[in-house]
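Are you able to produce any protein sequence you like plus the matching backbone structure tokens because I've never seen that pairing?
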Amino acid sequence: MKPMKRTKSPRVFFASTLLAMTVAAGVSAGVSSAGASAKVNITVAYAVDTTFDTTALANKWWGALQKEFEAKYPNVTLTLDPIHGGEPDFLTKLALQFKQSNPPDVIQFPSTEIALYQSSGYLAAMDSYLSGSGMSWFSQFPPVIQNEGKIGSHTYAVSAGENNNGLYYDKAVLQKAGIKLPWQPKTWADIITAAKAIKKAEPKVIPLWTDAGTSAGPAGAEYGILNLLAGSDNPSIQTASGKYVVSSKGLLETLNFYHQVFSQGLGAPTSQLFSANNAPNIPSADFAKGTLGIAVAANFIGGNWTKQVSFPYWPQASTAMGIAGIPKINGGGYASVLSGWDFGISSKTKAMTAAQNLVNMMQEPTNMIEAANWAGWVPPVKSYWNNPLYANFDAPFAKEFGQLLPWSTELPSSANFTVWVQGLEQVSGTLAQTPSTTGSAAMAAMKSYVTNQLGSSSVTSLP
């Protein structure tokens, strides 16, 4: 499917896929030049149909980058390797490329694949490069994003852009429900209270959107239920020993919240939640129509309303909508999970300097910010959050989500995460479809599913 507007950064967790790229011969090491004498050819592989809002924008960004790079390094030829199709197609094709003798030099890929690719020996360590002169952009990454590409004591990837999540709300809907603005709930109970007030004041408005079911794959969970889990009293998904958590106080709190939402008629209808047509983007249209009060949703929703993206174009959004952080269950801060795309360098590259210079150029302000705007990301460099090119693109949403980024947490980078999150999505769908289901019953069903899939030695229960 090639939607007009993609689901932003929906990292499809295909553990069996192995990312790849193609590179021609080259020489050099270090970061000062891209090859002193011999002509060097490097290749960069990327998903052309799924990272940016449109394929046309992807082609525009990568084409401009190619011209800029070859103008600055005239002895280097940059070959673009756009991989078409949905993300499953993208990752499968990259897997085949990695089996070739000359994989690409530079790779753009979902951050959850880093551990898999590093363990397979596909990625070069970037530590000495990142500590060199001219790499101040990396020091401006929030610690959680610096650590995104770190495996053990080495860094193997750097962020290209991030998706994080918050609470969008329709100011007019909340005002009609008697809720004081600006709205910033301090606890999960405050969210439920606001949703109840909306239902009472405006019965035709959906009080609260939060994802449920498996139709959107892991992306749906990343833009919904996992953010609640991140704010629970025990947000653990995986232990230090690698076991997946199938029973915990945090999981029960999260599933009990879902039980409250759907048993009290506060959630979206299953016809929307279970839609195969880009469900995480549905709040964009519902808010524009005035039929939604509050949504747990990703930063890219604000960009959907811009004229350039138009999904749909809604010029009044900047004043009609408000943003709040997703509170932790009992207060004390905010919570969000990260959905990132990263750049890595192939361990087999014969043109390390050129590859490093390409990554450095992609992190420069104009290049990174335009990618963030056109792909619906928050740029990981703090100083870019206030850059007018970024802050004004979908003002005020871009800057507000930048401020929420340091509260965000990474998801596991592991093959078994696919199974675990599938179990969570299944029971969230059950809670939406059969509201009488209790949180404890849903957790028991999730535990059974994940344990059967992974085996008892790969799972654990926590207090």
In short: The chain has two domains: 40-163+339-403, 165-337+416-461. Residues 71 and 359 are 16 Å apart (CA to CA).
